[in-house]
C-alpha cells in the first residue's frame, strides 16, 4: 500500500472541486432522466428513500455509501435488499449522489465510508495526489458492440458508418476530459485514426438525440436508458466506445480513503465480501437488476424491460486500465504522475 496521506492534507477545497469537475457518471448514467449532465436526478437523497436507515441496527455496524442512482449500482442495492450486508454485520445506508462532485470529496472528508465512481475520475484524483483507492469493481462493458449499454450515436441520414468518419467532427460527452471522450479517442486511435481530431462539447445524455435531430452536433455519447429509445427512433450507432476501447474495460467501482483502508481493513473486507455477493447475484439475475433499478430511479418500466445492462464482476482488468490511462495521458486528461496499479487496494 502506498504511503498514507494524513486526512488533513487529503484534499484542499480547490482540488476537491477539480476532481468533482472531472468526475463523470459511468455506464448507464442519467437513468433518472432528469436532464442534468451527471444524470443523477435528485442529489443528496434521504437515506430511507435510498434504501437505508440513518442509524445502526442492533449490533450491526453503520456504514454509509455514496452512489449515483444508475443501473451500475444495482448490485449494491441488491446486496442490501438480499441481506448480504446484514449477514456481514453491517447496517448499510445508501445515499444518492449526483456523481463524483459529491462522492469523491464525500469519501475524503468522511461523509461517506465508501462510494461508487468511474475509473477516469479516479485516475485524475490519483494524479493529483488525492488518497483514494478502488477496492472492488462495479461495472464492466459487455465487450460486445451492439449489445453494450453505451453507444456513440448519429442521425439516420448522417452517412457516418464508423468512428473514422468522424475525424474533425463535433461530438458530445456528458462531461469533458473524462471517460466518455477518452474512450472515444482510444477507439479512434485503435481504428487507425487520430483521436485528437475529435472535437467534444459537453451535453447531458437526455439532450443528445434532440441535438442530433437539430443538427447541433455530428454524434454523441449516450447511455442507457437513452441508447435503446434512440436506436428505436432511427438513430444509428457509429461506435460502442467502451466495448471497442477494450472488451474487458471496467468503467466504475467502489472506493475508500487510504486512511480507511490502512486503519480499518476489516470493515473494507466485510463490505467487499457482501458487495461481491451482490455483484454475483446481479450478474446471474438480470431481471432482478431491472426490477431493483426501478425502485431507486424514475426509469419507465418499458425502458427497464429493454435496456442493455453492463457486466458485473468484482475484479478489475489491469491491462484495460493501463490502456485507458495511456489515452488519458496522451490527450491531457491526466497531467500529473499516475501509477495505475496504485489505484487499487490490496486487501
TrEMBL record:
Q: Which organism is it from?
A: Citricoccus parietis
Recorded protein name is ABC transporter substrate-binding protein
Q: What is its main location?
A: periplasm
Annotated signal peptide: 1-31
Q: What InterPro entries does the record tag this protein with?
A: SsuA/THI5, TAT_signal
Cite the entry's keywords alphabetically: Signal
Keyword match Signal: yes
Q: What highest taxon heads this organism's lineage?
A: Bacteria
Disordered: annotated span: 34-55
